[in-house]
Amino acid sequence: MWRILTENFLLLDAIQFAYYGPQIDWQQVMNEGRRRIEGYQKSYFEAQYVYDLISSVLNEFQSIGHLGILSADTYDFMLQMFNDTDGERLFAEVELLSNPASKSFYNEVRRTRNLTQRNRVISESRLRYNILRHYISSWKDNDILYLKVSSFGFSTLRETEIAIEVLNEILADRDSVNHIIVDIRGNGGGNTAVWFEGIVLPLWDGILHMKKLGLTQNGDENAFFWERNGSEEYIEFFPISAGNLSDLNLPTDSIYFENADFIVLNRYDLIAEEENPDPFNGDIWLLIDKWVYSAADQFANIVKHSNFATLVGQRAAGSNGGVFNSPFLFILPNTGLAIRYESDISFNHDGTINQLIGTPPHVEINLEEDILDSVLQIISQNNY
Above 50 in pLDDT, residue 384? Predict the structure, then answer.
């Protein structure tokens, strides 16, 4: 595991020498993890024990760069999400997770925890009720529409589709509204399609430019994903040299470049397939805090560098999928347990590292102030 991480997870050294956030000595974590694993006395590995042990070791990294085990529920969902029913493309995720060792491992974890794969049939009305009760809420007052979305992650593809439908319905009811407040405070991420199809497409008629710059290593696990998932279609790789590094607005500390092989640039644009006949012409406000992570931070990061909305609150947590927009995976060969990680150091536009710094807002609100109240006050004072 540690060999694979040192060859593919470039964030290890950056975490150790972070200027902001936790400073983690990954070699100390590695040595302690090895000691605990070697102290396991049984002649065979019990799936649940391995699951809990590796999870506790990787938890020392506080989910920076998505580093951690793949849970049993997420294992099922990813197989469902990435399985191409048309058979035209075999995603790297499916190829990796379909191996016999992983199937056996996760089946044993489910058996031990009395979990079942999510194949129960739940009525559409019940799914909608659960989503409105736990994840999405709204209110409308005078010329303001408020929308709260506490998660972009749902257990099945159908739940994801229903969540997008619910968001579309709420945002369609915007007659006489001049301001839409989208509150994603506390949102730990999930599926980017929820915020793009559910929030952006109903309101927007332009292009959201997604430009990400980062550094990565040419490890075997990284190269496997680049080849299988067609990253070359919208991502450019530049071999690192002293000349091209000097042209970038990046930190000068050599630790960030010591083990890097490539500069990577993502110029992927989010574009609606059809022109929006009824775009929103008022003001959009996106509320964030330190718990906004993963796909939610990706939403905030794109908003920060576009004119879609004004970003208000506290600095988001980061780890928005990196330059490749999604974590990669590798499988521990002796057990089948899957490990997730972001394969690159991803930089914000000011040269800070997104996984360590997160996404700062346009308008920062002090911790002792309520972010929603502050936005309502801004709207009131400016007589929008």
Answer: no
Split at pLDDT 50, 70, 90, the class of 313 is: very high
As a whole number, mean pLDDT of residues 324-348 equals: 90
Give the pair of three-digit tokens for residue 282: 């008022």
Q: How far apart are CA 317 and CA 23, in angstroms?
A: 15
Reported as type and span, the H/E element at residue 237 is strand 235-239
Contacts of 36 (CB under 8 A, 6+ apart): 53, 57
Q: How far is CA 108 from the centre of its chain?
A: 28
**Which residues are paired to 237 by β-bridges?**
264
pLDDT digits (tens, 9 = 90+) for 246-269: 556 555 554 566 788 888 888 766
Kindly report the pTM of this predicted structure.
0.87
Closest of 91, 66, 88, 65 to residue 80, by C-alpha: 91
* C-alpha to C-alpha distances, 151 to 181, 188, 351, nearest whole angstrom: 16, 6, 28
Looking at residue 212, its pLDDT comes to 80
The mean per-residue pLDDT over the stretch 125-131 comes to: 87
Query: Which three-class secondary structure state does DSSP give residue 283?
Result: strand
The tokens describing 118, both together, are 């999510």
Report the alpha-carbon distance of residue 124 to residue 131 in Å, rounded: 11
φ, ψ (nearest 5 deg) of residue 220: -60, -40
